[in-house]
């Protein structure tokens, strides 16, 4: 029997074909991210060593597009409420601080508030949440920019700039004011996620850090508080509020001494 090759039709299985296309797209994104990450490392090193005054500009050039991209991606997955987390709130505070210093020459107490919150809970979150710098991972790159780069900005302002930055912290500027800043975020977060948009979040399948860390993929701190200490077993909200509050206060303590150290220069 002779088979006419002109009559043979090759059909692709849609699921497999789509999967291969997605893999190709992912590989392309990984390659672009890798090149971009490598370039960021080199550029950051050069600016830190040669042009420290450009650190705030580098920070804004990285933060704005990366967070915008994250919002668009998260919105498709119904994860946009993650952008209400403390790290984004703190970055908004850093941007406000830059505007205050550069446009109005107003430094205190906003600088001290951001220094403590960035060098404390924001920086330590890299260790607590295991945020590693993976060159080909856009998510990891964005997380590093969000958690680490604000500290580079504050480092420049404190030790390299000519602005009248305070060289020490008082109990008021180093603890009370930063804590008020943190509590203001916590109140806003609870009002938005647990009052205003509560029905939309829980009935619409939206994800928040509260649901993720306490219910979907419980963090080790949540397990420690609920299982080892036996506290707030039926209240994930209380677990998050009190655990984060204790963590924040603990990470504030070293910051009271770091600002006046000269060896970091």
Q: What is the beta-strand fraction?
A: under 5%
> Could you describe the largest sheet, including whether it forms a barrel?
none
- Number of DSSP helices? 10
Mean of residue pLDDT values:
83
Rg calc: 23 Å
- How many domains? The number is 1
Structural class: mainly alpha
- Poorly predicted runs are 8-21
GO biological process, one term: phosphatidylcholine biosynthetic process
Transmembrane segments: 28-48, 54-74, 86-107, 113-134, 179-197, 237-259
Pfam families: DUF2838 (PF10998)
Membrane topology: Multi-pass membrane protein
Q: Describe it for me?
A:
The protein is an all-alpha fold and about 260 residues long. It is about 75% helix and about 0% strand. The chain is built from 10 helices and no strands. The N and C termini lie far apart (about 85 Å). Residues about 10-20 have low confidence and may be disordered. Keywords: Acyltransferase, Lipid biosynthesis, Lipid metabolism, Membrane, Phospholipid biosynthesis, Phospholipid metabolism, Transferase, Transmembrane, Transmembrane helix. This is Glycerophosphocholine acyltransferase 1. Belongs to the GPC1 family.
Provide a short characterization of the protein structure.
The protein has one domain. 73% of the residues lie in helices and 0% in strands. It has helices at 14-50, 55-76, 86-104, 110-128, 138-160, 171-196, 198-204, 209-216, 220-228, 236-258.
Could you list some keywords that capture this structure?
265 residues; mainly alpha; phospholipid biosynthesis; membrane; transferase; Glycerophosphocholine acyltransferase 1
């Amino acid at each position: 029997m002779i088979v006419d090759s002109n009559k043979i039709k090759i059909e692709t299985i849609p699921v497999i074909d789509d999967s291969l296309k997605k893999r190709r797209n992912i590989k392309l994104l990984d390659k672009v991210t890798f090149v971009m990450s490598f370039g960021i490392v080199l550029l950051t090193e050069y600016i830190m060593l040669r042009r420290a005054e450009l650190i705030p500009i580098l920070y804004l050039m990285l933060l704005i597009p990366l967070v915008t991209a994250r919002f668009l991606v998260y919105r498709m997955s119904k994860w946009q409420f993650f952008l209400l987390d403390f790290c984004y709130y703190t970055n908004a505070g850093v941007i406000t601080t830059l505007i205050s210093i550069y446009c109005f020459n107003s430094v205190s107490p906003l600088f001290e508030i951001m220094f403590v919150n960035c060098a404390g809970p924001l920086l330590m979150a890299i260790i607590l949440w295991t945020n590693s710098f993976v060159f080909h991972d856009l998510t990891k790159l964005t997380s590093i920019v969000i958690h680490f780069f604000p500290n580079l900005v504050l480092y420049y302002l404190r030790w390299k700039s000519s602005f009248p930055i305070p060289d020490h912290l008082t109990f008021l500027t180093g603890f009370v004011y930063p804590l008020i800043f943190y509590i203001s975020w916590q109140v806003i977060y609870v009002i938005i996620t647990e009052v205003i948009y509560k029905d939309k979040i829980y009935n619409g399948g939206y994800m928040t850090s509260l649901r993720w860390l306490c219910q979907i993929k419980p963090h080790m701190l949540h397990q420690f508080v609920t299982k080892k200490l036996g506290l707030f077993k039926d209240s994930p909200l209380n677990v998050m509020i009190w655990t984060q509050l204790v963590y924040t206060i603990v990470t504030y303590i070293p910051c009271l001494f770091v600002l006046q150290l000269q060896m970091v220069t």
